[in-house]
Amino acid sequence: MEFERGAVIWSTRGDLGTTANDRVTIRPTGGTERTLTLPEMSLNGRAGALTAFAEAIRTGNPLDPDISGRSNLMTLAMAQSAVGSAAEGKRFPLPVA
Above 80 in pLDDT, residue 47? Predict the structure, then answer.
């Protein structure tokens, strides 16, 4: 995604149970590009989400709030703003969380 002072690029490479192929790159305008080191995660992608969901049902313990739909509302808003901005060629403000 491009921003006023640079860009953030991220990619994931499937549900292999590892973040080894995942990348986040920061490209500041006029600055030096850098790639962030991501932490290894035991549960990742669809397989990880389904495993966590099945575990929550099996144990009766609720899912970790860090992976709730509510915590991803800003992610959805950011994606919708990016699509709208690209389609209409203008800035779309994001709501303040």
Answer: no
Q: What are phi and psi of 78, to 5 degrees?
A: -65, -45
Q: Does residue 96 sit within a domain?
A: no
In angstroms, the CA 19 to CA 36 distance is: 12
With 60 as the cut, is the pLDDT of residue 94 above it? yes
Global pTM?
0.43
Counting DSSP H helices and E strands in the chain, the numbers are 2, 4
Residue 58, class by beta-carbon neighbours within 10 Å (0-12 exposed, 13-18 middle, 19+ buried)? exposed
Instruction: Say which amino acid occupies 20.
Output: A
Q: Which domain holds residue 17?
A: 2-64
Residues linked to residue 9 through DSSP beta bridges, in sequence order: 25
Q: Which helix (H) or strand (E) holds 2?
A: strand 2-3
